[in-house]
Amino acid sequence: MKVLAGDLGGTKALLGVAEIAGGRPRFVLTHRYASADFSGCDALLARFRADAGAALAGVVGACLAVAGPVADDGRRADFTNLPWRADARALEGLLDMPVALANDFAAVAAGIAALPEDGSLRLQAGEPLAGGVRLAIGAGTGLGMAVIVPRGDGDFEILPSEGGHVGYAPANATQDAFAAWLRAEHGRATAERAISGMGLVNLYRFLAAREAADTPDPLTAADPGAAIGALALAAPASLARRAADVFMASYGAFAGDMALALLARGGVYLAGGVTQKLLPLLRDGGFMTAFNAKAEHAALARRMPVHAVTAPEIGLAGAAMLARRMPPA
């Protein structure tokens, strides 16, 4: 079975052609694009069609994972951090094949459901429960979340979620002040505004207004989030490192809260670009300390297995896994 898969995010877009065999996709072609270079999905897919050429021969359908909520009929989606709309009917006309839309983190979850053993790093062994619900969370451009529910036949169902847009729950005085700053800036302090690439930039801006900024100031870089992350790893005494430490504590607390809400005894899986770029800090302990700081339910939190996804392009692989479920044209 040959499918077209797409992972269309606020910063980058990945598109590829994959053959599904043995329950996992094998990509025969992939292309990476900067989302900002295109006016919308139609322009992006037209470019990919031209670039892919003969590789599209024999493709039976496409699944495009989009960074935003998908309409109830599964045919339309508005992007959260881009002025784009995806319309499956229009894209079917453009690509001349059936097109399904999925939330980007539903695709990440589908990729995690078929994750190879060497595709993640264990942060907490926990006590995994066979058949337990698994939770996928990821800090990238935004903050994504989805749920993997095992089925009795060995397959799985994916429950999309906009859990990244719940209210930010500060756990100490610094985070309290940051939440107040977010409310003043945006009207509402959400988890995504604190725990994402833009959240890391928000946090650094907040701290730099109270303390001396680093020199050179990473906020002046072309990609401030990447500059803050790189400086945090390179300079433990920097304000960027302090921002990253606060970020990790917030990230861990959020992941632990969501794990408790779902009793994710099958495991919690952390994905997303920020997660992978700051992986050394994720392993340092601040994340897991906050994850498990659940008062009377701390023992339950410690029973949740926690993994950091290291497999590249997990959302693209997941989109291919979802495409294989499409009914014949």
CATH topology tier name of the largest domain: Hexokinase, domain 1
SSE ordering: EEEHEEEHEHEEEEHHHHHEHHHHEH
CATH domain class of the largest domain: Alpha Beta
C-alpha geometry? globular
Main β-sheet description: 6 strands, mixed
Describe the structure.
By secondary structure, this protein is α/β, with parallel strands linked by helices. The chain has 2 domains: 2-110 and 313-323, Nucleotidyltransferase, domain 5 (2-Layer Sandwich); 119-310, Hexokinase, domain 1, CATH 3.40.367.20. The strands form 3 sheets. The protein has a 6-stranded mixed β-sheet, sandwiched between helices. The protein has helices spanning 41-52, 88-95, 104-113, 173-186, 191-194, 197-208, 224-234, 239-262, 273-277, 279-282, 286-292, 298-302, 314-323, and strands spanning 2-8, 12-21, 24-34, 62-66, 76-78, 85-87, 99-103, 120-124, 134-139, 143-150, 156-161, 267-271, 306-309. 50% of the residues are buried. A hairpin with a 2-residue loop joins β2 and β3. α3 (104-113) crosses α13 (314-323), α6 crosses α7 and α7 packs across α8 (239-262). Helix content is 38%, strand content 24%.
Layout of helices and strands:
Layout: E1 2-8, E2 12-21, E3 24-34, H1 41-52, E4 62-66, E5 76-78, E6 85-87, H2 88-95, E7 99-103, H3 104-113, E8 120-124, E9 134-139, E10 143-150, E11 156-161, H4 173-186, H5 191-194, H6 197-208, H7 224-234, H8 239-262, E12 267-271, H9 273-277, H10 279-282, H11 286-292, H12 298-302, E13 306-309, H13 314-323
Parallel strand pairs: 1-4, 4-7, 9-12, 12-13
Antiparallel strand pairs: 1-2, 2-3, 5-6, 8-13, 9-10, 10-11
